[in-house]
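Backbone-to-sequence.
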């Protein structure tokens, strides 16, 4: 480490954190000072639109919405893994091709399972 004390290495990080905190606080204070504040009865209701509530917000959603959301996340992650693979495809050779094929096969099996369970229905 040298003759330099360890806490001195953290001074730039502390300064950066203080600048970030100060920027956030100054932004909030300036926004609070500049914004117009004209509250009226409709604005003070739970929903600013003033529309009356017609039912409870805590309703039960069908399970297929969650499955579709999970499939969306999984296929997004697949794309994140495929970009670096495509960049170094020639260096990986046959082993890289087999590994990516296995990765895609696992995702296809999951997609097929969700489709067979009825979570994916195109009306």
């Amino acid at each position: 480490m040298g003759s330099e004390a360890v806490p001195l290495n953290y001074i730039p990080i502390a300064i950066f954190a203080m600048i970030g905190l100060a920027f956030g606080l100054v932004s909030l204070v300036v926004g609070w000072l500049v914004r117009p504040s004209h509250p009226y009865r409709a604005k003070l209701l739970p929903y600013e639109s003033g529309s009356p509530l017609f039912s409870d917000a805590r309703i039960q959603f069908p399970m297929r919405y969650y499955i579709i959301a999970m499939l969306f996340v999984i296929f997004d992650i697949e794309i994140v893994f495929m970009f670096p693979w495509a960049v170094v495809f020639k260096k990986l050779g046959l082993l890289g091709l087999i590994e990516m094929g296995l990765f895609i096969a696992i995702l296809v099996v999951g997609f097929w399972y969700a489709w067979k369970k009825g979570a994916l229905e195109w009306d």
